[in-house]
Amino acid sequence: QVQLVESGGGLVQPGGSLRLSCAVSGFTFSSNAMSWYRQAPGKEREMVAFITPTGSRTDYAESVQGRFTISRDNAKNTLYLQMNSLKPEDTAVYYCRSITRGYWGRGTQVTVSS
User: Fold this and answer.
1) Around Cβ 64, how many Cβ atoms within 10 Å?
2) Residue 68: which of 101, 102, 92 has the closest Cα?
3) Choosing a second label site near 108 at 20 to 30 A (CA), which of 6, 19, 22, 31?
4) CA distance 23 to 35
5) Cβ burial, residue 113 (10 Å; 0-12/13-18/19+)
6) Can you give the pLDDT at residue 93?
7) pLDDT tens figures, 65-114
């Protein structure tokens, strides 16, 4: 069965860091372009980071550029999002997604608050 399971979310103070993980199974992870999305209360879901199948190219929303880093370990079928210098406006549910196949994870909550 196809599964995308996010982990690593939680409560963090402004300026802090979190590392999200997405464990993938049920499809060929190494051939799939992947992304991280987020959705804050009352707002539309937005893509924050993108990565090609081999990790050769990445792209970021302007709002997270320079603070977030997307990466992947194809041998472990795992996608990562390193989030540094977190701001209250980063508070959202974060989802991993296969751009190639259209699959979504169920999300993990990130709350940035003092």
Assistant:
1) 22
2) 92
3) 31
4) 13
5) exposed
6) 98
7) 999 999 999 999 999 999 999 999 999 999 999 999 999 999 999 999 99
